Structure formats: structure tokens, C-alpha cells
């Protein structure tokens, strides 16, 4: 497929992100089951609900733009990040070491999403897609706060272990 302009690039990235979020909805329940710390498991479950909302929001973004439709495609980067998360689970036993690894793996996903939604927001702004931009900015905010929450959890878990 040839991408000729900013609008086509936006459509491409929107479709890629839609697939990434779908992959994440399948991965988060596994992360929640693998986690030892109940707060961490709860954080994954909470973000699963948020992610389902984010998928609906992507539909709304497409609906707000008459000639843009989400295409079927695979986000290879997300596939790789999730695969590494699974490798980590396979290589560890349930406990604080695995939890630390799960937080790291989840934060890689969040950072990827923050970069993605940042780009989508910038493109939407450039293209004058105001409603789309506002919707995408809401998701960007959720991804950033998820990342912050994971950082806090990492600190709490380290303190628990030390104490
Ligand atoms: Fe997301
Ligand atoms: Fe996320």
C-alpha cells in the first residue's frame, strides 16, 4: 500500500492502533492472572476496561470523519511487545520478581501507545480534525496516567520488599 499524504498516514496509523488495542485487550487478562500483587492485578483489570473504551473511542474517531474508515491490519510492534511479556511470564514464577518484570513489560506497551497517540493527535490537529483530536487526546491522557500508576506500583512493590 502506498501512503501519499497526511490523511492517508492518519488512516494507516489509526488502523494500526485499532489492532494494537485489540491485541492489548487479549493480553491484559493474562497479565492480571500472572500478577502476584493484588493491586497490580487490579491495575491490569482496570486498564482492560479503559482499553475497551479506547477501542470504542477509535470507532468514534472514524465516525467523526466521513471518508475515513479503519482498515484491517496487524500491529507488528505490539505483537512483539506482547510476545516478550509472555516470554517473561514463562521464564518466572509467580512473585515479586515476575511482578517487576510485568510492570516493565506493561510500561513498554504504554510508552508505545503514548508515542502512537501523540502522533495521531498531532496529525489530527494538522488536518483540522478537531473532534478526532479531542477524542485521541482523551486516550493519550489515559495511557499517560496508566504509565504513572505503574511507576507508583513499582515503587510500592520495592518498598514492600525492603520493609
Ligand atoms: Fe490503549
Ligand atoms: Fe494502554
From TrEMBL:
Annotated coiled-coil segments of the chain: none
Alphabetical list of Pfam families matching this protein: DUF892 (PF05974)
InterPro entries (UniProt xref): DUF892_YciF-like, Ferritin-like, Ferritin-like_SF, YciF
Stated name of the protein: Ferritin-like domain-containing protein
Origin species: Vreelandella nanhaiensis
